[in-house]
Design brief:
Layout lengths: L6 E4 L5 E5 L4 E2 L6 H20 L6 E6 L5 H13 L3 E6 L6 H6 L2 H5 L1 H13 L4 E6 L2 E6 L12 E6 L13 H9 L1 E9 L4 H9 L3 E6 L6 E6 L2
Length: 228
């Protein structure tokens, strides 16, 4: 469901996010958008994977929920700073308007130089296309519903960053988790801010080994799952 109203909010670490009144949902944690994304997807996802698989080249990541581009931005910066090749494919059913993104003033938070280097190239990249943004980061941006998405390749990591189950229940079912499992390579990792018991059971029913981890600030737990 596309929504009509979106409000820009400041989260606890100063990074901007969006609140959708119709869904009663924020794009990120009010306790810190950048803090949450860094902890969940970079530290507990990408860095965890590379500690176990340091020679993966490139690391292949699928993101469900491009949103403001924050997770992709952090991953792009990580790839460049660590000189680690990454292929990043992101899905978004309802892309945000560029005027809204400009009004969020990411330049002020990240600094204009960093923002121009890593953030805006993601949004300037064409939809339904793959762009080589630099020698360490290949970026594929798809306007698509995850449940309709298909790929001939599998991924090392899935960043599952869809809206919560009360807002998008169809993306947290056993059917959706089974699809995610099918897109992972053996030993591939699924990671999300979500900690619902029903989602953990859906992951396990899909053949993944799920674990609860301490969550980011403001959240007691999160989930990570591995494909045997």
């Amino acid at each position: 469901m596309q929504t009509k109203s979106k409000e820009i909010i400041a989260t606890a670490d100063g990074s901007p996010s969006i609140y959708v009144p119709e869904l009663k949902e924020t794009y990120h944690s009010r306790h810190g958008a950048q803090t949450e994304s860094t902890y969940v997807f970079i530290e507990k996802g990408l860095q965890y994977w590379l500690e176990k698989n340091p020679n993966t080249d490139p690391v292949r990541i699928l993101e469900v929920g491009f949103g403001t581009g924050l997770n992709a931005f952090l991953t792009y910066a990580y790839a460049q700073e660590n000189q680690k090749p990454i292929f990043y494919e992101t899905l978004e059913k309802f892309p945000l308007d560029i005027n809204l993104l400009q009004a969020m003033d990411f330049d002020a938070f990240f600094g204009s130089e960093v923002s121009q280097q890593y953030f805006w190239p993601l949004h300037q990249s064409a939809w339904q296309a793959t762009s080589k943004l630099d020698s360490f980061f290949e970026f594929s941006k798809r306007e698509d519903d995850f449940l309709n998405y298909s790929s001939s390749q599998t991924f090392d990591l899935i960043f599952y960053d869809a809206f919560g189950a009360h807002a998008q229940p169809d993306l947290w079912t056993e059917e959706a988790m089974s699809k995610a499992a099918s897109l992972l390579r053996p030993d591939g990792v699924w990671v999300s801010y979500c900690a619902k018991g029903s989602v953990r059971r859906a992951l396990e029913a899909s053949g993944l080994v799920a674990e609860r981890l301490p969550g980011p600030p403001g959240k007691r737990e999160m989930l990570r799952a591995t494909k045997p």
